[in-house]
Amino acid sequence: MIKRLQRKFVVIAAVCLLIVELAIIGGINGVNIYQTNKNADELLNMIIDNNGRFPEFDPMGMKHDKPQNDSDSNVQPENRKPDRHKGFNEETKYQTRYFVVYADESGEITKVDTGHVAAVTSSQAIEYGEEVLKGGKSSGTSGNYRYKTGDTDKGKMIVFMDCRSDAATKNRFLLVSCAIGAAGYILVCLLIIIFSKRAIRPVVESFEKQKQFITDAGHEIKTPLAIISANTEVLEMVSEPNEWTASIKNQITRLNGLLKELLSLAKMEEEKPALTMADFNISDAVYDAASPFATLAETKGKKLTIDVANGLTYHGDEGAIRQLVSILTENAVKYADEGGEIAVKLFTSHNGKETDLEVSNTCKEPPQGDLSKLFDRFYRDDSSRSRSKGEKKGGYGIGLSIAQAIVRSHKSKISCKAENSMMIFTAQLK
Of 83, 84, 87, nearest to 95 (Cα)? Predict the structure, then answer.
């Protein structure tokens, strides 16, 4: 149980850490991609705003249109336009590779400008332009180029900018961030595994104290019960037995049964339960353990049927498996409807890797909600699993907990479901 708790703690912590890391890595890469694309779009807008060319920058952080003649080169600073495109400078136009395609109003390409790129010829530029015009989009990506369209007096201008460097940078950033994230994730997971024992230590101590208390209390209560039982017998010898002495003896029997089941459960939940694992004929074991309850069911007006596949073998503790069958069968007989049916089945699962033990009983009003709670110790849903009025229910709400402990000690699973007015308990024995 302690190992299961430790594993669950490690898994939950690792999953939470993975979710956080994926969110962080995805977020920073998303921001990086968005910012890179935004910068590219601003460059494209800058070129479009200046009729297919970069504006002239000066050291004062101002820009103005490219001079058309020598007289225009002496533009006074007060007449220059402020630079709207922050983050770009006079070197940007020499670092940016782009080409421009011009088209008339009818969509026919009239001119191309490939003077600022070496990887694209005029004919290739025309093909890129025709593809964009055919698609009808105003911006996007075509091959290694990011493009944006703009309107001019004579038609449409399409500016293509080489984004291979940006793509390579984004990919490198993604790989580096994933590598760093993976390394950090593995390191933190190792730390979680190392310190998980310390994290669950208070729970372990509480569980150990609880287990020790059950064991000590069981042994301590046996003595007063034996004395009470002996005194009751003396009273019956002195005076004739009556309803009071009979009630005392009945309660002593119930308490002895409860102590026995508590000690059995505590033993099953130990780190290494003392189980004798061996191959045995599970078909015979299930039939022998379930058949004595046929008479009990008949006396209560119920019917028990046993359907066991012949010749099945299983590697486990035969005594524990017999106890498992007894607990589930007794539980089904106890809670089956009056005049109802109980069925015990043993068969090989569909995948052929498991032996399934299925115990079912009729139940017109099955429990509602989470049926896994039925395996909690001292849990009893008597309101939904009640029988006829006046019939004593008995039990301590601990039998199914022992059944679950037996199944888990064999590294297997047990489950419960309600369907078609039937309560079905299934132990998948691996």
Answer: 87
Nearest to 378 by CA among 265, 245, 290: 265
In this predicted model, what pLDDT tens digit does every residue of 83-132 receive, in sequence order? 445 567 777 878 889 999 999 888 889 999 998 898 899 999 999 999 99
160 neighbors 101 (Cβ within 8 angstroms)? yes
Please, what is the average pLDDT of the chain?
Answer: 82
Reference 329, options 291, 371, 375, 355; nearest CA is 291
What digits encode the pLDDT tens for the residues 230-248? 888 888 888 888 888 888 8
Instruction: Please write the tens of the pLDDT for every residue from 41-84.
Output: 889 988 888 888 887 765 555 455 544 444 444 444 444 444 44
Question: What does the pLDDT read at residue 207?
Answer: 73
What tokens does 313 get?
């073998």
Tell me the C-alpha to C-alpha distance, in Å, between residue 62 and each of 78, 324, 325: 10, 87, 89
Q: What is the dihedral of CA 328, 334, 340, 342, to 10 degrees?
A: 20
- Give the closest residue to 215 by CA, choosing from 266, 258, 255: 266
Q: Give dist(CA 133, CA 156) in Å, integer.
A: 10
pTM of the model: 0.52
For residues 122 and 131, what is the distance between their CA atoms, to the nearest angstrom?
A: 14
